[in-house]
User: Fold this.
Amino acid sequence: MSNASTSPATFDPSLVKYRDQMECVVRWAEIGTWEWSRNTRTFKINPEFFAKHAITNLDPNSLTEEEWAQMIDPQDRDRALAQFVDLIAGKHTIYDEIYRLTTGNGTISAHAHGGTVEFTPDGEPLRITGTIQDITTFRAIEEAIIRRDRLLAASNESARILLSAGGNGFDHAVWKVLDLLGHAAEVDRVYIWKNYRGEDGRLYTTQVYEWSLGAEPQQGNELTVGIAFEESIPTWDAILTADRCINSLVRNMPQAEQNQLSPQGIISILVAPIMFENEFWGFIGFDDCHREREWSSPEEGILKTAGMLIASAIVRENTANMLEKERLFFQKTVETSPISIAVVRDAVLLSANNRFLEQSCFKIGDSIFPMFVNADDRKTILETIDAHGIIQDFSLQIYDGGGTIRDTLCTGLQIEYEGHPAVLVWLIDITPIKRTEKELMLARDLAESGTHAKSEFLARMSHEIRTPMNAVLGLAYLCLQTELAPRQHDYLTKIQTAAKNLLGIIDDILDFSKIEAGKMELERIPFNLGEVVREATLVIEHQAKEKGLELIVRLQETDGEFLLGDPLRLRQVLTNLLSNAVKFTEKGAVTITVQAEKVESDCVTQSFCIEDTGIGMTPEQLKGLFQSFTQADGSTTRRFGGTGLGLVITKNLIELMGGSVHVESVSHRGTLFRFRLQFPRLRQMNANDRNALLSKKRVLIVDDDHTALAIIKNIILSFDMRTDVVDSGHAAIEALNNAVKLGDPYHIMLLDWKMPRMDGLETVRRIRTLEEIHSLPQILMVSAYDRSECIRQARGLGLAGFVVKPVTYSAIRDAIFDAFMLRFSPEPADETAHNDGVDHVKGAKILLVEDNKINQMVAAELLKMSAVELTVVDDGQQAVDAVRQQEFSLILMDVQMPVMDGLTATREIRLLDKPGIDKLPIIAMTANAMDADYQRSIEAGMNDHLTKPIDPIKLRLALENWIVRK
Assistant:
């Protein structure tokens, strides 16, 4: 303010008041006032300004020009002083300058310094007065707005560049965008990182693009490839996934982040997340490697948006590249496809691959109608595509370019091609397949015919041979139990051995045939491993003694433990291997070692090893060891004999039981066979327990062969069991009834399979239907026929086991004991579960339509067991008339009949004007057993289909299922 005095005559109080008001405004606006005097060459500055800027070492009332100059930032000092000098020199009348001052606490702030000159009458500057204002905040806001505008402009230009980029120039476009953003943001490095999920399930990230200026490039080094978030940048995942930015000085970050960023020279960093389709896709980063810096929220938002633009462009480009690759792939696939492919519109060829053009000899623009062999096919294809838009795998015959008829599968799909509807056509040439199919069908028919003939022959021969063999072995066994002279005993022993050998050959041939046909089935019954091994060695022991060989058995005893498996097949395997070992060993020993290799609570793995000191084999002979009808070589076959099937059967049986066989052999030193099998474990039972279990139990033996009856009876009597014998199924049913009436029912029944009039399986079915027999025995099926076939046919009957003729002591004993153990059942005996439904079948009115008198009798007898009211007619017409006149609960309808067949009769019945006729159950009962026959029955209006010969159980189930309960 001016120092001029005011005379009292001219003193104006209002001026004083105005002065005080101005000083108050200046003080509260934080504007400094200053005055420079020419006389003192010093500045006078209001004390409030010095106090605000913490300047305590200078006097505000006498600040020298040198002191003022030292307060100015060196970068602005010369400019500020030069203008002040010009002002004093009279070159300017106003001082207006912006410069930076160093405050008392060492900070630098921007100030606007202005003033006016007061001159003397002779034109010399007297003093300069003015104001000085801190504009640091205003400058920061201004610079922030400038940076924001610059970033917005760069972001907008980036969007334009990315939208027009693509193909080979895309990577350059991304780099150009990063360059724009880097210069606009005034940073040293800009980059894009993309995330991915590793095989370990953790989140990883890798730098995919980078721009740098003034900083060392980092892309491709170990700090920018495959970085695990949780190890290298552990706090970033949570922050960025929450769509928040990381804006920080590196020195203020956790140590893990510092270890990752400091080696890259980064001082301050801004990282913005890139969220794509609500997923944390990656991030964009901005590094400053030369200064500490913080970013504003608007800058964060702009750069985050820029990152999204870049990521969207990258995803779009990757998708476009993938689609282009797929397009090229499919184009090449179509062009080189062996399938004829074409596009047609109104039967005119618009486009086609090479295969179509070569096969048809058509040209683009030709009509394809001439290629159809049958005009009806053309019509069908067009109508189907018009109706459904597609036709698939239509069997079509066409003419090729040479006029030859080709079989094809045609598929047509309605599409849009070049803006108009068209049809995409595929033609698969199946002419060679059709030809091969016919050849294969012929070969199959021949093979099936041969297989059927062979199987029938083998089954017939097996039965015809086994029946007398049963008598031979049985009688021999009985004779050997009597007092005999040594020569007689020797003769009978040799007869028995020869018979067993013959039986073994038959068994080998049958087993081999079943294995070839894939029909070999295994049992799962309880057995004692020690007994199986002893029975196998007992058979071989005599052979070994005759040759002077030592038979060594190393068996780990199991104290009566029972395993679950097929003891007969296991014994067959051991017998085959031991027999071979004895056969090919002239001196020394044959050793069998059986031990538990791995024992668990519910199963055990048993190791079997058969070793001999015989002739051994060469490596060449080992290669053909398991081939059918071969042995070591021709001379061996002549010397030792045999079919050559034993080892083939053995290998297959071991594999069926879940194991594999290993062979080691050295010529002239011996051979070793080793295999492992796993068996489920059962509870243990000692011999006394078994004997007590069987003692005094009642047994019924049923067999039409009286010799077999005598053999089986003698064996069972040795178990201290009560035994009765009968020779037919009817007699068995009567005996069971009598035993129940007397209160002493049978516990076990041994029943022969093949018997005249009523076989064993039919006998079981009859027994299951008898309500008066409340306590059924355990039933064992005995047969000289194929055991696998017997098991197959007996499924569902709840049998307790099977015994194969010729029977042996151990086979009978094991089968009876297993039956008492109640462990074995090929399938749950579910037949008795249906007894509850018999009540609602009783009294039902059944119409039986059957033209064959014998079939009528059989069906009628079966139906009478269910206590129904039966009406029988001879043909379909009579059935229609009967239904018209009477009410029935169910109709059993034959199909092939005179006058009117069953299908026609069913249709006629369904058309009758009679309440509830649509709900009347009609069941086909016919010898037509094909799937198509079943379908025809259903289409005619029948409810079910039973094939002849009629299974009584299935018939009873059909009655229970279809007759409505009252």
Remarks:
- The longest strand covers residues 405-417.
